[in-house]
Amino acid sequence: MERGPLIRILEDMRGTELELDLIINSRNEPLEIRNVTKVIELHSANGIQITTRQNQIWVDASHVAAAYQARDDGS
């Protein structure tokens, strides 16, 4: 997956209660991300650093097979 869409989603999550689940190749369970405080595009081609209230997370977007988020628009 390209990192551009992931960065936009993560930036929109900053300071909200929204959660994002990422399906990573070779993982049995999704990686759940919530309480995002900062998102940094790294120098590598696909690297993203995500800071949450609880953790520092580094993701290589090329290993993300899917990302999903619960809708909050009432539809």
Q: What is the strand content?
A: 35-45%
Mean pLDDT over the full residue set? 90
Q: What do we call the CATH topology? A: SH3 type barrels
SSE sequence, one letter per element? HEEEEEE
Biggest sheet, in brief?
3 strands, antiparallel
Percent helix, as a range, is 10-25%
Q: How far apart, in Å, are the first and last alpha carbons?
A: 26 Å
CATH architecture tag: Roll
Query: Treating each run of at least 4 consecutive H or I residues as one helix, how many helices?
Result: 1
Q: What is the CATH C level class, in words? A: Mainly Beta
General description of the model:
The model has no long low-confidence stretch (mean pLDDT 90). The chain starts with a helix and ends in a 7-residue tail after the last strand. The protein contains 1 helix and 6 strands, in the order H-E-E-E-E-E-E. The strands form 2 sheets. It has a 3-stranded antiparallel β-sheet with strand order 2-1-6, covered by helices on one side. The chain has a 3-stranded antiparallel β-sheet with strand order 3-4-5, with helices on one face. Strand 4 (47-52) and strand 5 form a beta hairpin. The protein has one helix at 3-13; strands at residues 19-24, 31-34, 36-41, 47-52, 56-60, 64-68. 15% of the residues lie in helices and 43% in strands. With 75 residues, the chain is mostly beta strands. The chain has one domain: SH3 type barrels (Roll), CATH 2.30.30.
